User: What shape does this take?
Amino acid sequence: MGLRSRLLPPLAPSRQATFPWSRVEAFIDGLYAIAATLLVLELRPPQGQAGTLGDALLDQWPTYLVYVFGFVQMFGGWAASRRLGAMLARADHYVLLMTMLALMSFVLTPFTFAVLGDAVHDRADFVAGVRLLSIVLTISLVGLAANMMYIRRRGYFREGLHSEAFERAYFASVTVWVLPLVALGLSYLIGPWALVPIVVMALLSLLPFDLPGDETI
Assistant: This one.
């Protein structure tokens, strides 16, 4: 065995040690809890003269709507990570790395939605915010797709999963990255309305995609 092989850790997927997912799930839950707290802290009461609070609150309704959407996206991401953990029998280091990449858009939620919230009264700035969100989501969901394909190839999914429901969930996971990419392209054609595919994606993530017939999910 050469010096290089003694110094470097095993890099081939077939040589990776596997481990249970429970500790990783606890870490992921903590990340979502922190991100949700930071998202709340981004909300600020409106500034204005005495007696104008009502008008100021009404003027900020687009900002509040943006933050509601942020919480929907964050909850959808947490639900998706919970479903993934329920389907995993085991994982390895590469699954962990790709999971961290997939979590990027949700960890950055306080920042991306603060950008959108600050830009609601300026069309050009809001479109720039939509593009930022689209890029972050695309990178994140490409990581999810790669992770799902890798997990399937390595045989890390639990045995006995309901085949039809599993195939639907798997197909959705490896293709969902298309929606924010479409939103990025549409932002050059229809401006702020390009946010619609991302809103649709977030709302779809709230649907009950849990696999039937499995008490452990």
Summary: The mean pLDDT is 85. The CA atoms of residues 101 and 143 lie 6 Å apart.
